[in-house]
Amino acid sequence: MSVLTEAAAKIHADRRYTVNASAHAFLTGLGLPLAISEDICAATFDEPLCLYQGGITVIPSSALESLNNDLLYLPWLRDGYITIASGACGDPIAIDVKTTRMAYVFHDEMNHLAPDLVPSKHVVHTPLSYHDFWHLATRYDIALHDPQVGESGLDTWLSLSGYAGVPVDSDQAESTWGRGMRVSA
């Protein structure tokens, strides 16, 4: 079980997690590695997964294909960015299929589609792989739902662990890492 699926299981302990076959076929058909596709599909099946005090919402896998094929998202999808979550201000959080690193898309730029649009210029390319990103993004929620930490021990856990989390929107991501360039995997 990966960290995203583990967090989902702790947050929604009563849910049974199965892989959404249609979403899995969509993601692997775009070139996403099998393990990452399975993780996304198993963690979110048919309802959003809110993490990090609502700062990040993982999109239900059952909605990924229609969302990414929407007119606003399509230029990024064609350039290899699959939106799988959103930040607190609505900025898409995507996985770069070419590198399997996570990226933040400036949603304000999505409303200004021009014929000469270069989607990768409106993206913050993080240095974090899919697994590293979700490890950081889910640690808060995993601790919160851990019976040994829980809500009462969360402040102590936060101070002792030095937990910094991940940015919740493109502006925070840009101030953390800069826009950066797309790099090879």
Descriptive overview:
The protein is of the alpha+beta class and 185 residues long. It has helices spanning 3-11, 21-29, 34-44, 64-68, 74-78, 107-110, 130-144, 150-161, 170-177; strands at residues 49-51, 56-58, 81-87, 92-96, 101-105, 123-129. A six-stranded antiparallel β-sheet has the order 1-2-3-4-5-6. A hairpin with a 4-residue loop joins strand 3 (81-87) and strand 4 (92-96). The protein starts with a helix and ends in an 8-residue tail after the last helix. The mean pLDDT is 80.
Task: Reconstruct the topology from this structure.
Elements: H1 3-11, H2 21-29, H3 34-44, E1 49-51, E2 56-58, H4 64-68, H5 74-78, E3 81-87, E4 92-96, E5 101-105, H6 107-110, E6 123-129, H7 130-144, H8 150-161, H9 170-177
Antiparallel strand pairs: 1-2, 2-3, 3-4, 4-5, 5-6
Helix pairs in contact: 1-3, 1-7, 2-3
Query: First CA to last CA: what distance?
Result: 23 Å
Spatial strand order of the main sheet: 1-2-3-4-5-6
User: What low-confidence regions span 5 or more consecutive residues with pLDDT below 50?
Assistant: none
Class from secondary-structure proportions: alpha+beta
Radius of gyration: 16 Å
Helical stretch tally? 9
Shape: globular
| Average pLDDT reading | 80
Give the ordered list of helices and strands: HHHEEHHEEEHEHHH
Helical content stands at 40-55%
Count of individual beta strands: 6
Residue fraction in strands: 15-25%
Specify the biggest β-sheet.
Answer: 6 strands, antiparallel
